[in-house]
């Protein structure tokens, strides 16, 4: 991977601030390529533009700024570039540019943030223009060589043809000349209509599968550099606690130990020649903790804090119309329920890790990250060097789910440790226990829902009071007027993002912010997860209380929301709603809209006499606007259900004495293979918008299952996970 010359006029402060806000993404156009002469002198194949490198043997390297963590973004974005490039797909590979290069080139690749299902939906236009621009430059270079108008030339499958003379040339033969041309004006770059796609929209195999299958893929945990040392770290297990003292002399003479380092106020690390020696020495190190003000923090105490918020007089309104309070007060009948959602850990298979080489002149970081720019900002701040003297080399992630996006605490730790050993690469690798007790957890929330009904059983008013944590506040991002807009995902007024799918004559959705001292973070699906459970399960309660069919009730409320209704109808029809299910099997429905896409699910569940839940089948539908790779969409839906069902059945982080009680997979249990239901996915892109894929469908798994469990048992589960409930028939 080439390194751009370091040239930047930004200050470290302005870059750090900008990188923190990069979660929202910045779309910028393609721009100036590296100077062709400089590339030739360095022995590098000349790039056509920032996105496309074509080598003399016709192989094509497409540069992808977003991160690959199993979701297929790498392949999807490459498909979009290759489509507009008219490339031979069999010759395509990819590489990551570095955030340092991006900074030096005035953010030519745009945002490096990969989260919120934005990898494709946020960057599709400018990456396609990058491919289209490269194609136009290649065609122009061939036309110049033939001394014919470029309009007389066509490109297909990496070959340029001049039909009038019968001449042909491959991209590799003209790439050098193309890279020296001025890029066409942005207004002259036209993109293909989706109906004309030949590569995008097709079920192409992923580009990263083979290396992962053979074991050739190098993850951050696998990385080895010459002379590298290894570090293990132990942070105070109590949130907000600090190091009081430690006895380094007790372990300094152990085999392989190189250094004992205090990291910040709250952690101690041991550096050794192997990681196992570092870890075992750390386990033997006497550490005394100052557990601080949260030493008695408990799940019960947090629950009480949130419960108070359910009836508190002050709350911030997220969505409203009419006068819900008055409508409910005047209603003939009321239905009310309180739901809650626990803390959950990302529990990525690959624990947090980073390798750092620090000198007074430069800081280099190798790490799996969902946001290379945020990692660069963290490295710059921790190293004391300006961003122009730092860089981050991204590696494929062994899982992200939001943990490796907004907060890069492990990068800061690794840099701090490496500063104690200048010039020596040091790899910091967390233990699973460290990873479980020092996460950025899915926020804890509660919700009180009250519906007013008329004599026909129709809802005249609905009040949803949310009480709980703000992710934006927890990760240090700004909010306005005490409102975290992310809290209301899936409950917003009609619009392009996370909008509610129902029309109520009177509606009030508000939030009482309560922030316990447990760090919250973006967790796959974010707040759409619990909000969909709250609304979809409560509507199911209303349907049963008024003796209405749950599908019929939803259809009545969704008349003004055709895209929401379309995905719901699709799953109901395919699942056979209204027709008899197999004996002992019961169905449940859910739908929502988030991350730009419309999704729905119908779950089929049985519960045996001992209360054991078996999820047999889930039919899912998704409308993401455009489907770049339908095969990957299906895989993403299935993968999201693994994650979502793990959370629904087992996922819960509890606190006792200020610390998380679950420390490994024996107490934080994922879904087993034999528990995974059959998943049937309906991909139904309606066009006209670009929605996400990786996160929306996770939100409908749990409520569909919970509604089916009620249908099977008559027991309403309002607090997750399911493992805490007795569903045994009485």
Give an account of the 3D structure.
The protein is built from 19 helices and 27 strands. The protein has 730 residues and is α+β, with helices and mostly antiparallel strands. Strand 6 (159-162) and strand 7 form a beta hairpin. Helix 1 packs antiparallel against helix 11 (372-383), helix 5 (124-146) packs across helix 6 and helix 18 (630-649) crosses helix 19 (698-713).
Question: What labels would you give this structure?
Answer:
27 strands; seven-stranded mixed beta sheet; 730 residues; alpha+beta; 19 helices
Secondary structure blueprint with pairings:
Blueprint: H1 12-20, H2 36-41, E1 47-49, E2 52-54, E3 60-63, H3 73-85, E4 92-95, H4 99-104, H5 124-146, E5 153-156, E6 159-162, E7 167-170, H6 171-178, H7 209-214, E8 229-235, E9 242-246, E10 257-263, E11 267-272, H8 275-284, E12 287-290, H9 299-309, E13 316-321, H10 324-329, E14 333-341, E15 353-358, E16 363-367, H11 372-383, E17 390-394, H12 409-418, E18 426-429, H13 432-437, E19 445-453, E20 459-468, H14 471-475, E21 507-513, H15 528-545, H16 550-557, H17 562-575, E22 586-594, E23 597-607, E24 613-623, H18 630-649, E25 655-656, E26 659-660, E27 678-683, H19 698-713
Parallel strand pairs: 3-4, 8-18, 16-17, 20-21, 24-27
Antiparallel strand pairs: 1-2, 2-3, 5-6, 6-7, 8-11, 9-12, 10-11, 13-21, 14-19, 15-16, 15-18, 19-20, 22-23, 23-24, 25-26
């Amino acid at each position: 991977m080439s390194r751009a010359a370091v040239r930047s006029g930004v200050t470290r402060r302005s870059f750090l601030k900008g990188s923190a806000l990069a979660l929202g993404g910045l779309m910028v156009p393609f721009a100036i390529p590296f100077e062709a002469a400089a590339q030739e002198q360095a022995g590098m194949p000349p790039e056509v533009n920032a996105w496309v490198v074509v080598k003399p043997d016709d192989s094509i390297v497409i540069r992808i700024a977003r991160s690959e963590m199993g979701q297929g973004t790498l392949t999807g974005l490459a498909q979009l570039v290759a489509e507009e490039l008219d490339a031979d797909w069999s010759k395509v590979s990819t590489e990551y540019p570095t955030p340092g290069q991006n900074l030096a080139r005035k953010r030519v690749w745009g945002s490096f943030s990969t989260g919120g299902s934005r990898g494709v939906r946020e960057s599709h236009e400018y990456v396609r223009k990058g491919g289209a621009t490269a194609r136009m430059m290649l065609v122009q270079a061939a036309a110049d060589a033939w001394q014919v108008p470029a309009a007389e030339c066509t490109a297909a499958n990496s070959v340029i043809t001049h039909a009038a003379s019968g001449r042909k040339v491959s991209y590799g033969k003209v790439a050098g000349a193309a890279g020296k041309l001025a890029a066409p004006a942005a207004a002259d770059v036209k993109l293909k209509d989706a109906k004309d796609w030949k590569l995008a929209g097709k079920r192409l195999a992923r580009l990263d599968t083979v290396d992962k299958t053979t074991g050739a893929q190098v993850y951050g945990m696998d990385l080895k550099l010459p002379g590298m040392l290894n570090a293990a770290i132990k942070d105070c297990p109590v949130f907000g606690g600090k190091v009081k003292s430690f006895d380094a002399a007790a372990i300094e003479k152990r085999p392989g130990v190189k250094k004992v380092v205090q990291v910040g106020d709250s952690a101690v690390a041991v550096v050794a020649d192997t990681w196992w020696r570092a870890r075992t020495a750390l386990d033997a190190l006497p550490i005394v903790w100052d557990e601080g003000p949260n030493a008695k923090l408990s799940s019960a105490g947090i629950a009480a804090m949130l419960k108070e918020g359910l009836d508190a007089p002050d709350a911030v309104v997220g969505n409203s119309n009419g006068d819900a309070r008055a409508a409910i007060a005047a209603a003939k009948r009321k239905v009310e329920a309180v739901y809650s959602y626990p803390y959950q850990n990302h529990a990525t298979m690959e624990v947090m890790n980073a390798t750092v080489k620090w000198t007074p002149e430069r800081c280099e970081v190798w790490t799996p990250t969902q946001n290379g720019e945020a990692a660069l900002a963290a490295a710059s701040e921790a190293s004391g060097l300006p961003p122009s003297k730092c860089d981050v080399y991204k590696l494929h992630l062994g899982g992200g789910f939001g943990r490796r996006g907004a907060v890069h605490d492990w990068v800061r730790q690794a840099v701090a440790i490496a500063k104690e050993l200048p010039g020596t690469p040091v790899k910091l690798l967390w233990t699973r226990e460290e990873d479980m007790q020092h996460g950025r957890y899915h926020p804890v929330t509660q919700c009180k829902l009250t519906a007013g009904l008329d004599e026909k059983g129709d809802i005249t008013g609905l009040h949803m009071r949310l009480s709980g944590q703000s992710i934006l506040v927890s990760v240090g991002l700004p909010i306005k007027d005490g409102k975290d807009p992310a809290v209301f995902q899936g409950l917003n007024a009609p619009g392009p993002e996370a909008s509610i799918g129902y029309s109520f004559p009177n509606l009030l959705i508000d939030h009482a912010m309560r922030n316990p001292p447990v760090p919250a973070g973006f967790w796959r699906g974010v707040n759409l997860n619990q909000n969909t459970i709250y609304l979809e399960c409560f509507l199911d309660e209303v349907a049963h209380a008024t003796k209405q069919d749950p599908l019929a009730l939803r259809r009545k409320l969704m008349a003004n929301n055709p895209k929401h209704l379309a995905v719901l109808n699709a799953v109901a029809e395919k699942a056979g709603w209204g027709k008899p299910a197999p004996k002992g099997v019961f169905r449940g429905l859910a739908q929502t809209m988030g991350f730009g896409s419309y999704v729905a699910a119908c779950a089929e569940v049985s519960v045996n006499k001992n209360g054991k839940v078996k999820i047999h089948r889930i039919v899912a539908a998704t409308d993401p606007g455009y489907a770049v790779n339908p095969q990957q969409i299906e895989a993403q839906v299935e993968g999201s259900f693994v994650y979502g069902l793990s959370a629904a059945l087992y996922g819960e982080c509890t606190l006792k004495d200020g610390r998380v009680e679950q420390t490994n997979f024996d107490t934080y249990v994922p879904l087993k293979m034999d528990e995974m239901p059959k998943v049937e996915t309906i991909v139904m892109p309606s066009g006209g918008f670009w929605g996400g894929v990786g996160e929306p469908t996770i939100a409908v798994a749990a409520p569909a299952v919970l509604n089916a469990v009620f249908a099977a048992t008559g027991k309403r589960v309002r607090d997750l996970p399911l493992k805490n409930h007795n569903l045994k028939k009485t």
